[in-house]
Amino acid sequence: QLPLEDVQQPLASLLQRLLGALVDGTLGWICLFGPVIAAGDWGWLMEKLGSGDASQVEQALGEMNYPATPILLGVLAAINMYLLYRDGQTIGKRMLGTRILRTSGQRAGLIRILVLRVWVPAILYMAPYVGGLILMVGPLPIFLPRRRCLHDYLADTKVVRA
């Protein structure tokens, strides 16, 4: 296997990036709600969530006490962090044949990916008044020729075909 720095790789397609994000998001939702479904409590949860009453939704989410949920989420996070460290990939990126590199073509590094691509944008999204705007506008630059989102610019990264 060649070091990532030695190969100039083409950018990932929009479809690859979208599907990779969908795979990662779906895996997260499975870890989060899989235990609820397995316990047979899905109907109860949907009834609470569909009530339209914010206090019932909050109560339902607070009452979700499934020990498997944090374990599954922790295992998923550990696998993704290992893959990000080793290959610049999450499970979704690996399945879709993409990886994260610095714009120079070098490995991005786990800390850069976690802090600048994940945590900083997450904090920005929570900012009062402008967080929602940043969340909506952040992905738009992906339609430009460089195919980079806001988090890519913050971290000096790009997503390429593996």
The pLDDT mean sits at 90
Number of helices: 8
Largest sheet: 2 strands, antiparallel
The arrangement of helices and strands along the chain is HHHHHEHHHE
Helix content percent band: 55-70%
Structural description of this entry:
This protein has one domain (11-161). The protein is built from 8 helices and 2 strands. It has helices spanning 14-38, 42-49, 54-63, 68-87, 91-96, 110-125, 131-137, 150-155, and strands at 98-102, 157-161. Strands 1-2 form a two-stranded antiparallel sheet. The radius of gyration is 18 Å and the shape is globular. It starts with 13 loop residues before the first helix and ends with a strand. The model has no long low-confidence stretch (mean pLDDT 90).
List descriptors.
two-stranded antiparallel ribbon; 162 residues; single chain; globular; mainly alpha
Walk me through the topology.
Elements: H1 14-38, H2 42-49, H3 54-63, H4 68-87, H5 91-96, E1 98-102, H6 110-125, H7 131-137, H8 150-155, E2 157-161
Antiparallel strand pairs: 1-2
Provide a concise account of the structure shown.
The chain is 60% helix and 6% strand. The protein has 162 residues and is mostly helical. The chain has a two-stranded antiparallel ribbon.
